[in-house]
Amino acid sequence: MTRPVPAPAVTLESKPFFDAAAEGKFLIKRCTACGEAHWYPRAMCPFCHSDKTVWEESKGEGVVYSFSILRKSPTGPYALAYVTLDEGPNVMTNIVDVAPDDLKIGQRVKVKLQPTEGGPPVPVFVPA
């Protein structure tokens, strides 16, 4: 059984991200003042507090930094994880298309844009 994903709340600040996701693109933000990439996309850089941020397309590849398996769910166990993108940011996400007990820290993963219940797709990750 597939776990349903509720539609995300789309704000003026996050709309470009979700518009791109609907086109199959995974975007992150990068600060042009300090050069750091960050997640969750926001107007202000969390590193230097500059408002000089730009959208950039990410390959959506990285490694599992940490994860927890949530076993008490009506749809069965699922994995909640932090993935460190190759660009640097850590993304809190679900890992799908793998048995939770087969998941490993350091495992290579890639983004998959998963449909939601009546909204834009959201990023989840699958084994690379």
What is the topology?
Layout: H1 15-22, E1 27-31, E2 37-38, E3 53-57, E4 61-70, E5 78-85, E6 90-95, E7 108-114, E8 122-127
Antiparallel strand pairs: 1-2, 1-3, 4-5, 4-7, 5-6, 7-8
Structure, explained:
The chain has one helix and eight strands; from the N terminus they run αββββββββ. With 128 residues, it is mainly β. It has one domain: OB fold (Dihydrolipoamide Acetyltransferase, E2P) (Beta Barrel). Strand 7 (108-114) and strand 8 form a beta hairpin. It starts with 14 loop residues before the first helix and ends with a strand. The mean pLDDT is 94.
- Residue fraction in strands: 35-45%
Main structural class: mainly beta
What's the alpha carbon Rg, rounded to whole Å? 15 Å
What's the architecture in CATH terms?
A: Beta Barrel
Secondary-structure element pattern, one letter each? HEEEEEEEE
Report how far the terminal alpha carbons are from each other: 22 Å
Instruction: Describe the global form.
Output: globular
Mean pLDDT: 94
